[in-house]
Amino acid sequence: MMSDKIVAVSKYIDPCSDWGFKRIFGTDANKDLLIAFLNALFQGNKHISNIKYNKNEHKGNTRNDRNIVYDISCKGNEQERFIIEMQRTRQEHFEDRAVFYACRCINDQARNEKGGKWDYNLKKVYMIGILDNFVLKEREDVEYFHDGCLIYRRSGDLVSDKIWFIFVELLNFKKADSALDTELDKWLYVLKNMSKMDEIPVCLQQPIFKKLFNIAEYINLTKEEQMSYDQDLKNKWDNYSALAYREKKGREEGIEEGERRKAISIARELKKMGLPLDQIAAVIELPIEEIVDVNHS
Q1: Which residue from 117, 120, 114, 108 is spatially nearest to 81, judged by alpha carbons?
Q2: Tens digits of residue pLDDT in 265-287
């Protein structure tokens, strides 16, 4: 059993932890929070008045198909489908996974059609990814909100709006509480900063955020919920620590390999000049055995 002293608890839970994200957005009792968050993401381009949660596990079509477990899956009042993923660590093919998830939802519509007739009238699928502590691509701009659907490359005209992708990079969201202009700003500020707060900021004194902070207050969790959250938070920290270590080792190994290649290049030139192998080895600090074969490196 994990010691109670392992996790340093803040006043509010971390909404970017797996457990915290599902507690805040993944239950019927709190679906008004998810509705408000989704409407903020759509920034007036779409309005959601109600949602119905689906099972978050998707079974494969056949015995050999991979099952999928979504963080949150729900349907809107127009039967559109929302898949919301909180991605805590960098994944090389995250966009490909998002396409795969969205296409599975499209495929479900054909499978669920009754009577064996279907005219391909698709309901929309929205794949939403909230990215914590990493970005999809290193870019010169620092945009944090990306959305799009299928368009023709040259004209930019719409091919289909039945699959939408929305990706939010929290790492690039750097607005202070005094600069929060929109509802989306407020939600992203909460996601990124709530676990570091001691009180509700003045700019968030709205009923929906007051409810959010109330259910996210650590002291309001049951003992069992606190233990589950503590373990999940520890897992999140462990994942970050392991990733940081791998990146550090990769940089160190890259530097070492670069220094070795430079030394070999110097050794090659000194060898052409006729310097004795022991002198070359002393200058560039490589074993004589490596210098003997330097022309083949």
Answers
A1: 108
A2: 777 777 777 777 776 776 666 66
Query: Do 233 and 17 form a contact (C-beta atoms < 8 A)?
Result: yes
- What dihedral do alpha carbons 153, 157, 162, 168 form, nearest 10°? 60
* Contact predicate 24/233, CB 8 Å: no
Cβ neighbours of residue 259 under 8 Å, at least 6 residues apart? none
Query: How many CB atoms are located within 10 Å of the residue 57 CB?
Result: 10
- In the Cβ-directed half-sphere of 100, how many Cα atoms lie within 13 Å? 13
User: Which residues lie below 8 Å from residue 132, measured CB to CB, with a gap of 6+?
Assistant: 16, 86, 87, 88, 170, 171
Rounded-to-integer distance, Cα 284 and Cα 262, Å? 9
Instruction: Give the pLDDT band of residue 231 (cuts 50, 70, 90).
Output: confident
- For 248, the token pair is 């550090």
pLDDT exceeds cutoff 70 at 229: yes
Report percent pLDDT > 70 for the chain. Answer: 77
pLDDT digits (tens, 9 = 90+) for 148-190: 999 999 999 999 999 999 999 999 999 999 999 999 999 999 9
Q: Let me know the angle formed at the C-alpha of 295 by 294 and 296, rounded to the nearest 5 degrees.
A: 90
Look up residue 124 and give its DSSP letter. P
The mean pLDDT of 206-233, rounded to a whole number, is 92
Inter-residue contact 12 to 217 (CB < 8 Å): yes
Rounded-to-integer distance, Cα 131 and Cα 169, Å: 5
In terms of pTM, does the model score above 0.90?
Answer: no
Burial readout 173-192 (b: 16 or more C-beta within 10 A, e: otherwise): beeeeeebeebbbbbbbbbb
